[in-house]
Design brief:
The protein has 135 residues and is mainly beta. Helix content is 4%, strand content 43%.
Length: 135
């Protein structure tokens, strides 16, 4: 029997609240592009944890190097909005909301998929430490 797909520990692991944003670009007055982050999902319960490195995994080599970025695993329930999340979107930890409206913890989505194709869970692999404007 195959291992269940979803956050380890099931729905009780959905202890974080995230906001999903997408970069919107419009034409600038003097030419070129300008844009900012627009919220596409205002609030979702999520399991947001640093990626677990298991002995013998290929990621062990990546984890052993000194890097300014870190990979995190994020699980959210599948629904009509979460299914639209794509690589290049941004996930923000709602608990880190600053007085100026920005977020202290933001993560760039690198991978988003309904892993078991049963429309129960969306798995997002996100990266911390990425510059806000980087694509």
């Amino acid at each position: 029997m195959a291992a269940p797909i979803g956050p380890p520990g099931g729905a009780r692991e959905l202890r974080s609240t995230i906001v999903v944003q997408r970069q919107q670009q419009t034409g600038a007055e003097l030419g070129g592009l300008q844009g900012g982050w627009v919220t596409i999902i205002p609030s979702r319960a999520a399991s947001l944890k640093p990626m677990q490195v298991r002995r013998g995994d290929a990621e062990q080599v990546i984890a052993a190097r000194l890097q300014g970025t870190a990979l995190w695993d994020c699980w959210v329930r599948f629904d009509s909005l979460t299914r639209t999340i794509k690589a290049s979107d941004q996930v923000c930890d709602k608990a880190t909301l600053m007085p100026d409206g920005s977020y202290g913890a933001t993560f760039r989505v690198r991978f988003a998929e309904d892993m078991d194709q049963r429309r129960q869970w969306m798995f997002l692999q996100v990266e911390a430490g990425v510059a806000q404007g980087a694509g």
